[in-house]
Specification:
Number of domains: 2
Number of strands: 15
CATH architecture of the largest domain: 3-Layer(aba) Sandwich
Order of helices and strands: EHEHEHEHEHEEEEEHEEEEEH
Number of helices: 7
Distance between the termini: 26 Å
CATH superfamily of the largest domain: Response regulator
CATH topology of the largest domain: Rossmann fold
Helix content: 25-40%
Radius of gyration: 20 Å
Largest sheet: 5 strands, parallel
Mean pLDDT: 90
């Protein structure tokens, strides 16, 4: 059974959102429990173990972004969906790994699509991987654990959560195979996982782990299109 929290300091708004969520999930035949919170502090104090959290950003007591930061200290893998009457906080939302950003007033069809994606993500976690070979050693790398690939001469280096691994491969082959898996070749030497992009400008990408990756000038416009498309698909404005 899904456990859902809705946090909004406008009581009527909070009740309406919770009611809409319950109606949609009942229609989807997904059992759930929903708790309502009317301030960020009340939500943080609850210490509840929720699967999906709907969080208003503009709240008087403790705003939604700060509430999310506190929540993320102990809950890295939960689905966080921001709701707001303003677009101004979209990119701030990704600093706390927001899954989606919904604008008020919330359209029920958009809410339904978000819930369908969230339920799918919870029920079918990604386990895609690549298999690489080097000196008779075969290693499996899950795509979610890879930060980026770097070309060094005839070798490709995998940089990821498990360290660095070098093997023989052509980066254009990787680019072709992983393009629809959330990877983008931002430079002739780098193929990055868009999931881990934290900050970027016309010169470089900074990943969540602090590493700085160069962006080729001629690829910047395409990179912007790809990162925005990725955010919309995996958590963005509807």
């Amino acid at each position: 059974m899904l456990s859902i929290a809705v946090c909004d300091d406008e009581i009527i708004e909070c009740c309406n959102i919770a009611g809409a969520i319950k109606e949609i999930l009942d229609e989807m035949k997904v059992p759930c429990t929903i708790r309502q919170f009317y301030s960020g502090r009340e939500f943080v104090r609850s210490a509840g173990n929720f699967d999906i959290i709907f969080l208003d950003i503009i709240m008087h007591d403790l705003d939604g972004l700060r509430t999310a930061q506190i929540f993320r200290e102990n809950a890295f893998d939960k689905i966080l969906i921001f709701i707001s009457s303003s677009r101004d906080y979209v990119f701030d939302a990704y600093d706390v790994e927001a899954f989606q950003y919904l604008l008020k007033p919330i359209d029920n069809q958009k809410l339904k699509r978000v819930l369908q994606k969230a339920v799918w993500k919870i029920e079918t976690p990604s386990q895609e991987f690549i298999v690489v070979n080097k000196e008779r050693q075969t290693t499996k790398w899950f795509l979610n654990d890879i930060y980026y690939f770097e070309i060094r001469g005839r070798m490709v280096e995998i940089h990821g959560a498990n360290g660095v691994f070098s093997y023989y491969e052509q980066i254009h082959v990787l680019e072709q195979n992983l393009r629809d898996k959330g990877f983008f070749r931002c430079h002739k030497s780098y193929l990055i996982n868009l999931k881990y992009v934290d900050v970027y400008n016309k010169q470089e990408v900074i990943l969540d782990n602090g590493e700085q990756i160069t962006i080729a000038k001629r690829r910047y416009a395409e990179f912007c299109r790809e990162i925005l498309a990725y955010m919309r698909k995996n958590g963005g404005i509807l």
